[in-house]
Amino acid sequence: MSFWHENWSNMGVLADVFAEVEPPAPISLAEAAEANFSIPGMSDAMIAQMRIWYDSRLKSDSDERLWAPSPDGRFTVKSAFSLLSNQVPACPLARHYWAKFILKKMAILLWRFLNNAIPVDVRIQDCTISLASRCLCCVHRNIESMEHLFLRGEIAVFLWDRLSPLFGIHRTNYSDLRKFILAWFNVAHRKSQMGKMATLFPRAIMWEIWSERNRRRHDESPSSMAVILYKVLQWVHNINPLLRTSNHSPGMLHHILRVCKLSPTPVRRKPPLVLRWSRPPPGFCILNTDGASSSQGAAGGGVIRDD
Ligand SMILES: [Zn+2]
Fold it and tell me: How far apart are CA 179 and CA 190, in angstroms?
């Protein structure tokens, strides 16, 4: 246990508590205790304080490791999350790739891509594992890098060039896959129907490229380009009901769905119903009531009429 960097005393991390003291060479708590806390750079008052804290910990009823970021020394996921989120800058694409309507496996694949964590051959070679690379997406084999597999390989070119022009994006304008994906995410506001569609398509395309690559890698019979395209459109079709279209949906969205032969799910709206008060039969009254309530209280009322 580090003397300077762990909360052994339950008074906080000493490197923070005594920020004015330049921590010397790393020292463990056991070594510090062995030296009776006579550590170079510490004043006599600090040394005396250390001895008191150490003794109080020895006399403590519990023998537990203490978690510095929580005031009571107990570990919580919340405190760990806030500790890490303060240290790591937020990814500007996070809102896109964690969109609720996207399947988790697709979201995670994109997260892995953005973090360079998809095990294509070149990535494995980066880990100093000797490997002869040969992609499985092209007739004339190439080196399998992330950019090749997902942007320039034959499957990728086939899928992107058929689907991205529908969104006004052209693959040939991009040499960087990251910027290409960003262009998709910038087609429209992420919460709009077009924005959701432009978030969904690249995810389904990347998922099917990766699935097909793995199928071929594991010696399963390769799917034809038409079948891979069909699978991409099936994903869009299956998730599309969540993105309901209406007469007010952009014409571009209808066009995309029509070209991809995807049936839009129309929004059913109830026809408006006109309600009118009608006179009761002679000798009868009508009582109309209404009420409302909140956490603060409730109220109600009524009107009795016979004409
Ligand atoms: Zn290839």
Answer: 17
Backbone phi, psi, residue 230, to 5°: -60, -40
Could you tell me the distance, in angstroms and rounded to a whole number, from the CA of residue 120 to the centre of ligand 1?
A: 11
Q: How far is ligand 1, taken at its centre, from the CA of residue 50, in Å?
A: 63
Quick check: 216 pLDDT over 90?
A: yes
Show the beta-strand stretches assigned E in 91-223: none
Q: Which residue has the higher pLDDT, 20 or 135?
A: 135
Can you say whether residue 116 is alpha, beta or left, with left for phi > 0 and alpha for psi between -120 and 50 degrees? left
Specify the pTM. Answer: 0.63
The Cα angle at residue 103 between residues 82 and 95, in degrees rounded to 5: 40
Residue 181 has pLDDT above 80, yes or no: yes
CA–centroid distance, 157 to ligand 1, in Å, is: 10
Phi-psi map region of 27: left, alpha, beta (phi>0 left; psi -120 to 50 alpha)? beta
CA angle 178, 174, 238 (to 5 degrees): 60
Give the Å distance between the CA of 215 and the centre of ligand 1: 14
Question: Any idea what the Cα angle at residue 121 is, between residues 117 and 127, rounded to 5°?
Answer: 60
Q: What is the pLDDT of residue 119?
A: 95
User: Ligand 1 centroid vs 137 CA: distance in angstroms?
Assistant: 4
CA 234 to ligand 1 centroid distance, Å: 24
Q: What is the domain partition of the chain in residue ranges? A: 14-87, 93-260
How far, in Å, from the CA of 230 to the mean position of ligand 1? 20
Of all residues in the chain, what percent carry a pLDDT higher than 70? Answer: 94
